[in-house]
Each structure stands twice: as C-alpha cells, then as structure tokens.
Automatic annotation (TrEMBL):
Organism: Dethiosulfatibacter aminovorans DSM 17477
Family: Belongs to the uracil-DNA glycosylase (UDG) superfamily. Type 4 (UDGa) family.
Alphabetized Pfam families for the sequence: UDG (PF03167)
GO MF terms, alphabetically ordered: 4 iron, 4 sulfur cluster binding; metal ion binding; uracil DNA N-glycosylase activity
Protein name, as recorded: Type-4 uracil-DNA glycosylase
Domain Uracil-DNA glycosylase-like as annotated: residue spans: 27-173
EC annotation from Swiss-Prot or TrEMBL: 3.2.2.27
C-alpha cells in the first residue's frame, strides 16, 4: 500500500465516532520523502472544512516558525494523531487516538522520517510517553528505533500564550541543528 491508497482508505474510515461528525478526514500533507514529520493532535475547524492540516491561525503561525529556520511545507510532512476533527476542538479521546494511530504508523513506515516533531502534549503522549509533561519536557530528544522525537509546544498554545514563543524558538533551532547534523 502506498500513501495515496492509505489516504483513500482513511477518508472512508468510520472506525470511531469522529468519522460520523467530520466534513473531511485530514490525512496529511507534504513531502512523501521528508526527513521531518510534524504531528499535531487533530484537525480544527478550518482543517476539517478544507481537508488540509494546519491551515488555520495555528497553521499560519507554524508556517512562519518553519520559515524562520529555513524549512517549508515542501520539505516536511505534516499530519495529526487523529484524522477527524473532535467536536468543539476538544482533545482526542484515548480510544479515538488508539484507533487512528494505525494510520499514523503506516504514514511513518511509508515516509520514513528521521525526525518526528510532536506538536503539543497529545502528540507527545501518544508517540513518546503517556505521562509526558509538555511544559517540563519540551525540547528534549528521544530516540525510538531509527527516529528521533522531540516534543514542542503546539502553535495554538503559542497563540494563547505568546510568552512561550521563546521556548518554541529554542526547540526550532534545535530541530534545525539536529537535521543539519543528520545530513552530514
């Protein structure tokens, strides 16, 4: 199965209740050979309408952040833990995340990123460790298999807490340095 076939299958998914309330499954977007994969928690309103990840205000901030470290959406792959919008933008429930993680595992297997950036606590707790504290552990690297993981603050959090942008800037510089070192 390739990424397109997986996306087609995902867009028809009804394995949890989120499939019944969505407008669009938001599978992912970007370079299918990316060294960096960004993983958020789940689609918001704008993403659900457009079927594209991170296109709302948080996505616009993310684009600016990436540009600041000379990365673009053409170079990365971006997706979420769950592919359908949770009602009222709530965090995905454990069973919703667990069901949807199979899609993410296949995406990772097909794309084979070297780095996975966990955007926010939901992503980090699903991919790194269930009891991870994003505010205490953001910016710390963890290696699993052949992939280096780093949790950082979600762009939506940064919109609500602008003073935390300095922490995310440090994480972005670390990601850039790590990527450059991997390419040497």
């Amino acid at each position: 199965m390739d990424l397109k076939e997986l996306e087609t299958y995902c867009r028809k998914c009804q394995k949890c209740n989120l499939g019944r309330t969505r407008n669009n499954a938001v599978f992912g977007q970007g370079n299918e050979n990316a060294d960096i994969m960004l993983v958020g928690e789940g689609p918001g309103y704008n993403e659900d309408i457009q079927g594209v990840p991170f296109v709302g205000k948080a996505g616009q901030l993310l684009d600016k952040m990436l540009l600041a470290v000379e990365l673009s959406r053409n170079e990365i792959y971006i997706t979420n833990i769950v592919k359908c919008r949770p009602p009222n933008n709530r965090n995905p429930l454990e069973d919703e995340s667990r069901i949807c993680l199979d899609y993410l595992r296949y995406q990772v297997k097909l794309i084979q990123p070297k780095i996975i950036v966990c955007l926010g606590a939901v992503s980090a707790r699903n991919l790194i460790r269930p009891n991870l504290s994003i505010t205490r552990e953001r910016g710390n690297w963890t290696r699993k298999g052949n992939i280096d993981f780093i949790p950082t603050l979600h762009p939506a959090y940064l919109l609500r807490n602008p003073s935390a942008k300095k922490d995310s800037w440090a994480d972005l510089k670390s990601i850039r340095e790590h990527l450059d070192a991997l390419k040497k």
